[in-house]
Design goal:
350 residues, alpha/beta, two-stranded antiparallel ribbon, 13 helices, 41% helix, HARBI1-like, HARBI1_dom, metal-binding
Length: 350
């Protein structure tokens, strides 16, 4: 039986339903038409629908194909390209799996498995694309003149479905929504340098940082005399600078103004990331392991887009707006204000 249709490079897959005697029931046969979207759409149309351009998709496909379950073209096999495009479309829409399954031409069960495997494969590229860069201070200095900045740090909530009746409340954040609290660090060009996606929504930002490998690296002096810059949720230390809650002098006000404008890069980074992949703002309805893989995979894809100058796109769906940050009295953890005060006196005093 010929399972392929050569028209427009599209593939027509035919699924047979067997009766009790093992004979194909032709009346209940289902047809899936898998379109070759790479040739179907122009470059701009392709990028709008899948968030990556054709060149970036080709390069990514070469890197993740060894990690995917490659299925032959016989027996209704799903090509690695279709698996990748299905997953990218899922990220771009943030909708039900059935919608992207119909878009590519697979069953819902197949779509679920594909999203899991492809997300893990892309997340496996994290060390290659999400890493601490050596020369970040110059670009940060150009923003407001703030010296020696390694990166801007903050956390953002990614809505999810309740994972389990026993542990679900751990994932309920201060707004009463089930979420993952995701830590991110970026440079001045909005490239992620660190992403942690394993903490429930109830976790405090400082708790995530205090238990991270990044903090250990900072305490070991791995980044030299460069600083992270974060909001008042974090403790002020010799390697992480926070704003003054009650500035009194001109120098302290100058410091706070420079701090806010410099730290704004991570807020912008989160915004660009979530607008490009609306699944991060619309509730993720998959298993927890797949959710974590999706968060890491989209951070990798975000960096790929930034590195390849793929322009930011407007979302196809309405994006929920996040309310402003909470002002904390002090971050959780041991405080060390001496470095911050020395910086204010030596650098921001008029």
């Amino acid at each position: 039986m010929d399972l392929f249709s050569d028209e427009s490079d599209n593939e027509m897959y035919e699924i047979g339903v067997f009766d009790s005697e093992g004979i194909v029931d032709t009346e209940n046969r289902r047809l899936y038409n898998r379109i070759n979207y790479r040739s179907e759409f122009s470059d701009s149309e392709f990028t709008y629908r899948f968030r990556l351009n054709k060149t970036s998709v080709d390069e990514l496909l070469l890197k993740i194909t060894p990690s995917l379950k490659v299925i032959s073209s016989r027996n209704n096999g799903i090509s690695p390209l279709h698996q990748l495009l299905l997953t990218l479309r899922f990220y771009a829409l943030g909708t039900m799996l059935l919608s992207v399954a119909d878009f590519i031409g697979v069953s819902k069960a197949s779509a679920s498995r594909i999203v899991h495997h492809v997300s893990r494969a892309i997340a496996g590229l994290y060390p290659q694309y999400v890493k601490t860069l050596s020369n970040t201070q110059n670009a940060f200095h150009e923003i407001t003149g703030f010296p020696r900045i390694l990166g801007a740090i903050d956390c953002t909530h990614v809505p999810i479905q309740s994972p389990d009746s026993n542990i679900g409340e751990e994932y309920r954040n201060r707004k009463g929504i089930f979420s993952m609290n995701v830590q991110g660090v970026c440079n001045a060009d909005l490239l992620f340098m660190n992403v942690v996606a394993r903490w429930p929504g109830s976790a405090h930002d400082a708790t995530i940082f205090n238990n991270s490998r990044l903090k250990m690296q900072c305490e070991e002096g791995l980044f030299g005399n460069r600083w992270l810059i974060g909001d008042s949720a974090y403790p002020c230390t010799s390697y992480l600078l926070t704003p003054l809650l009650n500035p009194t002098s001109v120098a302290e006000n100058h410091y706070n103004e420079a701090h806010i404008k410099t730290r704004n890069t991570i807020e912008r980074c989160f915004g660009v990331w979530k607008r490009r992949f609306p699944i991060l703002s619309l509730k993720i309805r998959v298993a927890m392991q797949t959710t974590q893989a999706i968060i890491i995979a989209t951070s990798v894809l975000h960096n790929i887009c930034r590195l390849n100058n793929i322009r930011d796109v407007d979302p196809e769906v309405a994006m929920p707006q996040e309310s402003g940050d909470i002002t904390y009295a002090e971050g959780i953890g041991q405080q060390n204000h001496s470095v911050r005060q020395q910086l204010i006196n030596n650098y921001f005093s008029v």
